[in-house]
Amino acid sequence: MYPVGKHPNHPKQAQDCPEAARRGRLSPSSRRTQLTGGSGAFAGPLPGPELPIPAVSRTPPAYPSPAGRSRGPVTEESLQADSGSDCISLELRTADGALVTLTADFRQEVKIFRALILGELERGQSQFQALCFITRLHRNEIIPSESMAKLRQKNPRTVRQAEEVRGLEHLSMDVAVNFSKGAQLSSHIHNVCAEAKEAIYTREEDVKFWLEKGVDGSMFEVLPQTSDLPDLQRCKLCADRWKPCICSYTLSIEWYPCMLKYCKSRDAGGKVSSYKCGIRSCQKGYTFDYYVPQKQLCLWDEET
């Protein structure tokens, strides 16, 4: 069962990156980076102490044409970058009140998505449910932590639109991760996924990659799939709230620096050289499918 905790309006913030943020100060190698990603009203700061400097982006409709992307609510994001520990952390609150955190651990090649989802108290749920999805971090998915830490923004209240909408990625999270052993995979799991100890998921194909790097395989457990249990349905098709099913959860990172831009210059001798001259911003959505022992833990995934 998912762990019970405080209301997500005041959750434990995922300040695992940088390390110094938990101590109430920043180390010399750590930088709080203020970024925004459209046009629109500014959303107020997320609650909680010691949050990174906020960033604001406009949330477009689900993967619309470029002409339709100027409309939509505003999403505030907070970004941190720590070049010393080679990680970045991005946090945002969705329209339905969920608090989503993305932590990218470049050193271990690991991405951690955490979602604190408001529970439906009238239907017997806890105040919130916590989920963690862990995937491999591929090269060039997001700009390096060192580059992120150097970024600055003149007007933190400017609301901007992501330049590129990347395709929705559908991931089958068919393996559970043992929280107590997760530090070997990434030291950030201990703090980021503390509220989701029994709900940490990854993919078998990513597990194979990590095993080749020497990670202990005992931290992983393959979850039941429809091929193992013919009666296992998707939760949105399951009428019984107490039966196991395959749940789906979708989230979107509305604005993040996905690429560095390079410009060319020519010296007095005519030699051409390249230099970093900016960033390209992206928006990307993810849908995670994973096993739950009862539909009660997946009430958002219902047919409308």
Automatic annotation (TrEMBL):
Residues 27-36 have a biased composition (Polar residues). Residues 234-302 form the Out at first C-terminal domain. Residues 1-82 are annotated as: Disordered. Residues 71-210 form the Out at first protein BRICHOS-like domain. Pfam families: OAF_C, OAF_N. InterPro entries: Oaf, Oaf_C, OAF_N. Belongs to the OAF family. This is Out at first protein homolog. It comes from Amazona collaria (yellow-billed parrot). The lineage of its organism: Eukaryota, Metazoa, Chordata, Craniata, Vertebrata.
